[in-house]
Batch of 4 targets.
Target 1
Amino acid sequence: MKLRWNDYVIDQKQLAAIREQGSVAPIKIGTDVTLRVNGREFPHLQPSFTITPGMGPSDFVAARITLPEGQQYALGVKSVSVDSGTATFSLATRDTALLTVIRIPGIQVLWGGVYVMLLGAFLSYRRRARLATRPVPSARAGRRSTGYDAEEKGVVRDTADPAANAPKPV
């Protein structure tokens, strides 16, 4: 990308009215530039802005460029200094998105399944949250008998000897 400045674009009559009469009418200031992008030249682009004396720049107008490949650029002038002979430019890409709309028959059934799954997840979460807030039952009240007489009589079982732990015949 290469930018070559050619000249200023200023309405000389308005500029003379400002100098001679002290007019406060807005004046359009721009530049004439040539932009070279990927070997292709775009001559005499004229980005500009309007200056109102005492108020500053406004109404920025960018030069639009479209390449044959579809790439779009906007070249704008940010500031111009006539005293030093400099200008500040901005170059922005203007990419576009392509959207394709697809129509799928029966998609409502698929979305219905998604809604049912979300409802099930919500109900499961709510049930789990309620169970987590319930008090824990005591360990003794929740234990069931295994059928051993020793448990009923309060005898401690020996876990190391399986023969001692065998139930007594009735």
Note: Residues 31 and 132 are 73 Å apart (CA to CA).
Target 2
Amino acid sequence: MYVIKLIVPLVLITLSTFVINNVYAGDKRLKVPDFVTCDRNQLTSWHGVASQYQRDNGHLAITINTSYGTKESLELEFDSKDILATNFRINGLPFNENNWAEIENESGVLKDSIKVIVWVCETPLVKPIIDWKLPKR
């Protein structure tokens, strides 16, 4: 009888530890890349597919259908394409003039089903960063 009283709590502790570990094993947090300068406590990210995109005359609007089932939108004002490009990355690498053709069919028109991670800081001084996730070449 004494052995059963000891074994039952041990089994319960083992099972509860197993359940707790499995709940957190599915947590797929994104590793924050070095190019994101925002304090981690003020940072959020949206990972998904760009569903709407408009770029013209100093204005960019993008909507992302996230992998968590939400829709997130971002609007940026900019003075030139070059300045806007400083907020862009391609697979984590700096964005350059040649990359426009990789994400747009024509000026201001995004290609279909492009994956993206948008890093947004609560601090307005830190501009959002859009990291376009293209298939490996």
Note: Strands lie at 43-56, 59-66, 71-77, 88-90, 93-94, 104-106, 109-110, 115-121, 129-133.
Target 3
Amino acid sequence: MNTYRQLPMRHQLYVAQGLDGAWGMSLRSDYSAIVTIGLDDDGFFYILDVIRVREELVALRRTLIEAYRRWSPNVFYVEKAASGIAIQQMEVGDSTGIPMIPVQPLGSKESRVEAISPLFESGRVLLPRYAPAEMPLNFVDADEPASARRDAIPVPAGPNAWW
């Protein structure tokens, strides 16, 4: 996986955030993920931030707002599934000014990973060389039940949603 040491200037990136929401807080529950990606003019995708949490809806709403304020993305995609639907129904975007765009998941998570894997293979997706300790770049905990691993990797709701 290719990495970056220094980001381009903020004005040189189109920044998108997305929420892949889930329900519940038990060890068997899926994670909710908020991913922030920057796209430069040369077509490189910079993974700027990854937040992976198991939180109740009110706490997830707070985490989402904090992530938005930290990065000020151009757009915020919300998967139309699980807690993403509830976040939209809470009118989080309307009350906070977050430009939320609901995205209907197309196909299985596996097929969505397959659709974007050429970007990773071509080296166009870049991870931070020195990621903050709180950024979960491994995505899967070894002690998690297999059922939780399917949703451990945040995947865009459609092949062209973020990528």
Note: Helices lie at 57-71, 82-89, 92-96, 109-121, 146-149.
Target 4
Amino acid sequence: MMEVVAAAKKIREERYADCSALFVAGSLVRGEGTAHSDIDLVVIFPVLKCAYRESFRFAGYPVEAFVHDPATLEYFFAEVDRPSGIPALPQMVAEGIEIPEPNDLSRELRRRALAVLEAGPPALDAETEARMRYVITDIVDDLRDVYCSTGTSPMRRSGGDHPTATRPPN
């Protein structure tokens, strides 16, 4: 993790020197990274014309940067991530390491991210819940159709008489 933090500090110096706050987060910071993991950054500037996301490589690492100002970050927290039920940005800000160190803005953004996570997603209306149930049922039906037509589980399909192949009872 210290290597990732050091890379994030260099990225800030070289690409985002004027930013007000920077959080490095994700699987590498949590110690759960794989050979294909990237460095996730949330970069906050005082004001931007629009938020953006960029991907690049740095010191051998793939990097994904989510670049915002406080207003666009709040918009994504409240209008995109929370309603979707997938609060990626609030999670990165809540769990991220502030680079180079915490400041008043980063502490306030972390408090806001934690509040969004604590609130959870809004309740589903009846129409959305029915649509989601339909989608799940349709996917299960498709999986059942594949299993019944091939004789193997789509999760274990390896062909032939492989010992892990699963066949329906006759």
Note: Residues 160-168 have pLDDT under 50 and may be disordered.
